[in-house]
From TrEMBL:
SMART domains: Fn3_like. Residues 1-19 form the signal peptide. One of its GO terms (biological process) is glucan catabolic process. This is Glycoside hydrolase family 3 C-terminal domain-containing protein. Residues 706-775 form the Fibronectin type III-like domain. It comes from Hymenobacter aerilatus. Transmembrane segments: none annotated. The lineage of its organism: Bacteria, Pseudomonadati, Bacteroidota, Cytophagia, Cytophagales.
Length: 796
């Protein structure tokens, strides 16, 4: 018996032990268990690396139609254990990636697969990358669909449409290997001199919040493992859009109550919709930089709002705690302040790198705080299924990007975004039987000027300009004459005489003016990607760019010789229609007084020319509404509609009202409002509900959309409240002669205010409901009264 037993033991001893799969690689294990297991296996160096997000466009190499990892990427992974990249697929003058040197969708997918393959297969733990991309109005990559910029999106007043658009953007980005989309921008734009107004949804917290929720829902969907959804990163947390003097990234001045009542609600709504990433803003609040603000990033965002995602810095803003704000003496102190406050990931990774190691060595950051931040990043990687499926199908990528359906959607968003500012004596729509049309102006046939900032290079055939849209719309025998006339900013060359001659021969002159956010390869850029504004050299042409990140304005006047151009054309006596393509409100005083029709298209995206032509010729009935007020002068600023009492009084030179108010927009149809009914509030168990009904009728002979807007005023309150505040809105479609009852419900969330004790309460007393077509065009009013006080919570 001895020999068999010995043989058996010998046999057993030579059978290799089956390696047990680490728990973090078990797809069936709970996410929290996987995170804990992986954290326990990581070195400090690997943990710090996971918090770094490097600039991604330097991380691939392209050789003809082949693409692979760069030496810089392999070094970043091998030596720094980087866990994320940003803007890998970005192409623009800043990155120096062109249509030739950048990546088409198929190569983009192959590139991200190569990047993932290296880190998954060549590192000790095989942790996949998170790839973040710019996605505010389309994925900022070559070959994708370019939608209208955010200020145009909000002009639709149609959250359902924007949710559909966001889902299309997510599909295109995810198909190429992206996991995170930067957007939406939820800053209130109450300072139109600021360069980034185009990236916002305007001046109002309710409209901003609804658009933000739509973007989050469209991006993230209900399944992050779907292969068609991306995580939404909310920008810029918070109050970034009201810098003093309009200086981008500059200091802001706002009280705590205004912060809670105006600037925070859009972010809170988007977090409530499930947003999983937030970007801290460059600015400080009450002397504390947002990137190192524990109250903002931890107490409020996580403890009060229940945020479950991770916080990322804006580019270089962590080191900016020291270099810009001067509240830290050393890089290590700056890193510690940010990480301890709750900022998890460093965009650029030149902050959370050697300086974070120094902070750890100096005991400025504890192991628990480091693990807290790393776990938030890893959790998302597990929840997106990246450990199981880090790759995308490169063969499908080209078919999923810029599909005919997405291009059609871009046209629809552009059409719904167009605001008819003025239409004297029904100058619009134009007749398609016109024989001679002059199309004039610097933005009539400049494709990049209609796309906005954060846009990749485009082949000519991708973008339809206004000139091309008009030519495609009219009859074959119609003569369409084009003259640029002048540039946006450059005054060294102009041909106003040719524009006048063309107008004299035409039956109508369509003059396309405005601004531009089109970057060029001559512009200098800061390390943050913002453009550097430099003085023009004598006798040399200058860029059209007068908007877009870094291009703040001192005035809002039409630049260059644009005003002289339109004045000369108007002086011919030929009827003039002005189309505005731009990223911020501009001074339109002369145009409003002398031009019969004016259309605002903002930056309408790649299908903008078709959309504008649809509106000009009546194939689409415009219903866009302004999401931001248009001032008469910078001397009026701020001029947002929901100012707090007391009422503004007039100036010596002019009145205090804007030229066009928030919510303004005309239609080719007319609408009548009647039958306002406000039910007595239903109050019980600390809740209140108020039903508001009215009837809206299309009194014209053509179908159209109307945006019904409900504003509220708290007649007597313990703290000062706005004279009127948008609370609800609906965009409805009515056939000619059709009428419909529109119903709104107001709750405690709509009626609440912050009392002197900084408590959210609904106070008993009278409220006024105002329903109409804009903040100034109120058609119906009624009062109701709340009987009982309701205490909701402390400030949050």
């Amino acid at each position: 018996m001895l020999k068999p037993i010995l043989f058996s033991l010998s046999l057993f001893s030579v059978v290799p032990a089956v390696a047990q799969k680490p728990l973090y690689k078990d797809r069936n294990a709970a996410t929290e268990a996987r995170v804990k297991d992986l954290l326990g296996r990581m070195t400090v160096e690997e943990k710090v690396g996971q918090l770094g997000t490097l600039l991604g466009w330097e991380m691939y190499e392209k050789n003809g139609q082949r693409v692979g990892t760069s030496a810089a990427y392999r070094k970043a992974i091998d030596e720094r254990h980087i866990g994320a990249l940003w803007a890998t697929l970005r192409a623009d003058p800043w990155t120096q990636k062109t249509l030739k040197t950048g990546l088409n969708p198929t190569l983009a997918a192959e590139a991200t697969n190569a990047l993932q393959k290296y880190t998954v297969e060549r590192t000790r733990l095989g942790i996949p990358l998170l790839l973040a991309e710019e996605c505010p109005h389309g994925h900022m990559a070559i070959g994708t669909t370019v939608f209208p910029t955010s200020i145009g999106q909000s002009s639709t007043w149609n959250p359902a449409l924007i949710r559909q658009m966001a889902a299309a953007i997510a599909t295109e980005a995810r198909a190429q290997g992206a996991h995170i989309g930067y957007g939406p921008v939820l800053d209130l734009a109450r300072e139109p001199r600021w360069s980034r107004v185009e990236e916002t949804y305007g001046e109002d917290p309710v409209l901003n919040g609804q658009m933000g929720v739509a973007m989050v829902q469209g991006f993230q969907g209900d399944n992050l493992k779907s292969g068609a959804n991306i995580v939404s990163t909310l920008k810029h947390f918070t109050a970034y859009g009201v810098p003093e003097g309009g200086h981008n990234g500059g200091s802001i001045s706002t009280g705590q109550r205004e912060l809670y009542q105006s600037f925070l609600p859009p972010f809170r709504a988007a977090v409530g919709a499930g947003a999983l990433s937030v970007m801290a803003a460059y600015n400080s609040i009450d002397g504390v930089p947002c990137s190192a603000n524990e109250w903002l990033l931890t107490d409020l965002l996580r403890h009060r709002w229940g945020f479950q995602g991770f916080v990322v810095s804006d580019l270089n803003s962590v080191i900016g705690v020291m270099g810009n704000h001067h509240v830290a003496a050393t890089p290590a102190e700056a890193m510690a302040m940010a990480l301890n406050a709750g900022l998890d990931s460093d965009l650029s990774s030149y902050g959370y790198d050697k300086a974070l190691h120094a902070a750890i060595d100096q005991k400025l950051v504890s192991a628990e705080v480091l693990d807290r931040a790393v776990s938030r990043v890893l959790r998302l990687k597990f929840d997106m299924g990246l450990f199981e499926n880090p790759y995308v199908d490169a063969k499908k990528a080209g078919r999923q990007v810029k599909t005919p359906a997405h291009v059609a959607l871009a046209r629809q968003v552009a059409r719904e975004s167009i605001v008819l500012l003025k239409n004297e004596q029904n100058a619009l729509p134009l007749s398609k039987t016109l024989q001679r049309i002059a199309v004039i102006g610097p933005n009539a046939d400049n494709m990049y000027n209609q796309l906005g900032d954060y846009t990749a290079p485009q082949p000519d055939e991708n973008v339809v300009t206004v000139l091309e849209g008009i030519r495609a719309k009219v009859a074959k025998g119609t003569q369409v004459t084009y003259v640029q006339g002048c540039a946006i900013r450059d005054t060294t060359t102009a041909d106003i005489a040719a524009a006048v001659a063309a107008a004299k021969q035409a039956q109508v002159a369509v003059v396309v003016l405005g601004g531009s956010s089109a970057r060029d390869f001559k512009t200098e850029y800061q390390s943050t990607g913002a453009a550097t504004v430099t003085a023009a050299k004598s006798n040399q042409p200058i860029s059209d760019m007068e908007s877009g990140e870094g291009y703040d304005r001192a005035t809002l006047d039409l630049l260059g010789k644009q005003l002289q151009l339109v004045q000369a054309v108007a002086a011919t006596g030929t009827p003039v229609v002005v189309v505005l393509i731009k990223g911020r409100p501009l001074n339109l005083n002369w145009l409003a007084a002398h031009v019969p029709a004016m259309v605002d298209a903002w930056y309408p995206g790649q299908e903008g020319g078709n959309a504008v032509a649809d509106v000009l010729f009546g194939d689409y009935n415009p219903a866009g509404r302004l999401p931001i007020s248009v001032p008469k002068s910078v001397g009026q600023l701020p001029v947002y509609y929901n100012f707090k009492s007391p009422a503004k009084h007039d100036y010596v030179e002019m009145d205090a009202k804007p030229l066009y108010s928030f919510g303004h927009g005309l239609s080719y149809s007319t609408f009548a409002y009647s039958g306002l009914q406000v039910a007595s509030p239903a109050e019980s168990n600390g809740a209140v509900r108020v039903q508001v009904r009215c009837t809206v009728k299309n009194t014209s002979t053509r179908p159209g959309d109307e945006v019904v807007q409900l504003y509220l005023n708290d007649k007597v309150s313990s703290t000062v409240t706005p004279a009127k505040q948008l609370k609800k809105f609906q965009r409805i479609t009515l056939k000619a002669g059709e009428q419909r009852e529109v119903t709104f419900e107001l709750t405690a969330e709509d009626l609440k205010l912050l009392n002197p004790k900084m408590e959210w309460v609904v106070e008993p007393g009278a409220f006024t409901v105002m329903v109409g077509a804009s903040s100034e065009d109120i058609r119906l009013k009624a009062d109701f009264e709340v009987k009982q006080p309701i205490r909701l919570s402390a400030a949050q």
